[in-house]
DNA sequence: TATTATATTTAGCCTATGCTAACATGTCAA
DNA sequence: TTGACATGTTAGCATAGGCTAAATATAATA
């Protein structure tokens, strides 16, 4: 079944953390998201079941190719929407918070339209 | 506690239907939202508990003042966001679908910025 | 190596919010 | 007035996704 906001947030977090440190562990995700370790543990199991997270390696969390594609997709929405809102005059913190929720609910079509619009304005 | 997406959708639906017909009943809401009658029945009880729906009158659903303020707030987000997306080149159906989800997640600050931007562009 | 500290998992609770099945209450027409 | 259809409610199930407490694993240090 399609990923919900929750799953997308976990993927995005693993992706972001993996760009900051060599190895990402469950506890890092828990700290970053302010969730309990059991919540993260279960979520990681679900992502594994969905084939978005690798099963093998010790305890390090590694996205599969499919997982990384999805994570990047969400993360792009995050950065583009944040920039958009800042361009509209919203303060950085609010812009990021809104982007972080909306990124899960905007369709491809609408997101593409938003991106095109931003390109045009930045020419 | 703050209203979730679900509660906001019920309020908005009651508001929209009340502009189309004299009396709105649970079954009208169920038909409109494609939800079962028990789901609507329970949701109406919760809205009443929250003071957003009047308790008295027979079976007609009437928003309280607080409920109407919230409903209008969401509905405005719906219409403004839909128009925004259409202006960006998104087809009407997709624009409305996206607006219908995003309306629950956009902050006041960001929504106001979006509105200001649209005013400017329509001058 | 043995002990302690850190990570992870298991078990099970809770809330929100959809559902069906079954029951209750109208309301209206024969 | 009564039977039938519409409407509403009660009871209880399911899923998603947080949580704590407690048990395991794993790692690091005395």
Task: Looking at this protein, list some descriptive labels.
mainly alpha; 6 helices; 123 residues; DNA-binding; homodimer
Short characterization:
By secondary structure, chain A is mainly α. The first copy, chain A, has 6 helices and no strands. The N and C termini of chain A lie far apart (40 Å).
Helix content of chain A: 55-70%
Oligomer: homodimer
- What is the end-to-end distance of chain A? 40 Å
Low-confidence residue ranges of chain A: none
User: Hey, which two chains have the biggest interface?
Assistant: A-B, 20 and 20 residues
By secondary-structure content and strand pairing, the structural class of chain A works out as mainly alpha
Shape, per Cα inertia axes of chain A: elongated
Number of strands of chain A: 0
Mean of pLDDT of chain A: 95
Largest sheet of chain A, in brief, is: none
Count of alpha/pi helices of chain A: 6
The string of secondary-structure elements of chain A, in order, is: HHHHHH
Q: How much strand content do the residues of chain A show? A: under 5%
Query: What is the radius of gyration of chain A computed over CA atoms, rounded to a whole number of angstroms?
Result: 15 Å
């Amino acid at each position: 079944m399609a990923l919900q906001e929750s799953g997308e947030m976990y993927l995005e977090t693993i992706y972001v953390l993996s760009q900051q440190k060599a190895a990402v562990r469950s506890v890092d995700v828990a700290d970053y998201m302010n969730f309990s370790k059991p919540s993260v543990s279960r979520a990681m199991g679900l992502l594994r079941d969905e084939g978005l997270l690798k099963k093998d390696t010790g305890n390090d969390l590694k996205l599969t190719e499919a997982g990384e594609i999805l994570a990047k997709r969400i993360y792009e929405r995050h950065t583009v929407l944040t920039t958009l809102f800042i361009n509209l005059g919203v303060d950085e913190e609010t812009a990021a918070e809104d982007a972080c929720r909306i990124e899960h609910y905007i369709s491809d079509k609408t997101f593409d339209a938003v991106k095109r619009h931003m390109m045009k304005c930045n020419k």
